[in-house]
Structure of YkgJ family cysteine cluster protein:
Amino acid sequence: MNTTKLSTKSILPLTCSRSGSCCFGKAVMLNPWELLSFSKEKKITAKEFRNLYCEFGGIRLIFNGKADKKGQKACSQYVDNFGCSVHLGRPLACRLYPLGRQIQFDKAHYIYEGKQFPCLTDCAEVLDLPQLSVGEYLKGQKAEPFEIAQDEYLKVMQSIADIGFELLLDTGLAASGDTKTLAAWRTIGNEKPEVLAQRIGSEWLDYLMIPQITDESNDPVTFAQKHNDLLLDKIQEQFGGLETFQEVHEASVLLIAVALHLSRGLGADTKGIAEHWIETAKSHGAKE
């Protein structure tokens, strides 16, 4: 689909009419900090929120509420004639809507899909409301900490993947003539989220989405860094004593799977990332 690129100074009909139409039939992806934010607002644990309201191990919000006239199901957090029941804890995807955020070469760009402004399909009344710049809209939505969280978790994603690379390239596995590891990376890059979640398993999904951080911080940078440290400790504990190339292969594939699953929760192009990682590994001597 075509996208329209924006700057923070772009002026658009961004004053919400609060019709609730955007709470139906969407795919709202979550990172671990957003999952925690939701659970705090719901006044339950992150694990309880995930188990009740998320799928694929916690990376996507369930839409199983009352259907609208198009047959689209409402978000599990939507209350008819009221709106979002956890509005203050809503994730970046909801705060940005109808805008999207792309990161290219470490710089964020704002976009909307298609040539026509998306809200006009179901909420044409927004044309009669005050227009805002993208920057004003983001400030009003208090999006900044959630953008920071997304950027920090992109670093966590790469940190996990880097160890998958090290296992392939620095242990002698790639030099041994191994071809099945990159083939497995490509397979998991194309897997549906439910299949990838099953491959990863409940233990690693828990490590990934509901970290046991006792001193929970309202600062997304601190939270993501603590989470990254926990993941690195778990990786060292579980994979620090690998002895055979088969064990190294399995560990590398698992960690790339975990990193790709997180990438999907961040709204990234999981297939494209997998292909990029494969080409990078091949440029360092790995074979497929």
The chain has a mean pLDDT of 94. The chain has eleven helices and nine strands. The chain has two domains: 3-143, 145-283. The first strand starts at residue 3 and ends at 6.
